[in-house]
Amino acid sequence: MQERRGVRFIGALLLLGAMTGCASQSSFNQLPDTVVLAEPERAEFRYEIELARIGQMLRENLTEEQRGELYYRRGALYDAVGLRTLARMDFTRALEYNPRLADAYNFLGIQYTQLQEFDYAYEAFDSAIELNPEHRYAYLNRGIAEYYDARTKLSQEDLEYHLEKEPDDPYRVIWLFLAEHENDAALAQKSLEQNAEKLDKSDWGYQIVQLYAGKLSEEEFLQRMTRNLGESEKLTERLCEAYFYLGKYMQMKGEQLQAVNYFKLALMTNVYAFVEHRYASVELTRIRESLLSR
């Protein structure tokens, strides 16, 4: 038994080594040749101008409501460029000045989910929903928090409600599938195929659904993921989504090293504002902790 435990520990260290430090060529040598890399997204210059402008405005004589709105706006900008601690500080300040900012609570909930501080996350999402029962994303984000907190029944309820609001959104279909898969893989597959019937087949997200439904292989999905970019779409954004969901797909297949590599590729896009970028880091942290606990 001691020898087997030692073998498992050495294997865990080897996989962990592939996850830490800079991404080496050997770290990605199990990925298909069709993997696409793009230059990481850079913060838009207008964000820097807006941050400077808000900093100046905050020195002026303002009402509490105006100050709260400015702190919220600056927090959202910090969040968009990956400065999460500064963003969290500003969202907290915003709520001190205006405790009715549902969007600030929603952002705080997301950040606490990323930190895996789930009690704080639920408190924030509940506040957002109490202030705005029709909030567009609070149910999704609370459902994701519950998914990562292994409260999959509650996660399903929130994600089902979120999907009902827009049944033609492929990403809502995907997150519900991920939650359902934790409880009953066969039932999740059946539900996925039923929900897929309501989707626009020309939508890029439909390709992800097809991958999970077993209609596309990993290689076919990789070949399609750069096609037909819309006018408002960026390649880095498409790749961020594609690699995150490929990571989850490989995880479900038990291909842990490939999953790790895809999550790392999602992070390399620097698309900080995307759900997929946010939770790629959570996935890597959880895999790392799982390996070290063996």
UniProtKB/TrEMBL annotation:
A Gene Ontology term for the protein's cellular component: plasma membrane
InterPro entries in the cross-refs: Lipoprotein_NlpI (IPR023605), TPR-like_helical_dom_sf (IPR011990), TPR_rpt (IPR019734), Ycf3 (IPR050498)
Residue ranges of TPR repeats: 68-101, 102-135
Keywords tagged on the record: Cell membrane, Lipoprotein, Membrane, Palmitate, Repeat, Signal, TPR repeat
Signal peptide: 1-23
Compartments in which it is found: Cell membrane
Pfam families: TPR_1
Chief location category: membrane
Top-level taxon in the UniProt lineage: Bacteria
Protein function: May be involved in cell division.
Subunit structure: Homodimer.
Entry protein name: Lipoprotein NlpI
Natural source organism: Idiomarina rhizosphaerae
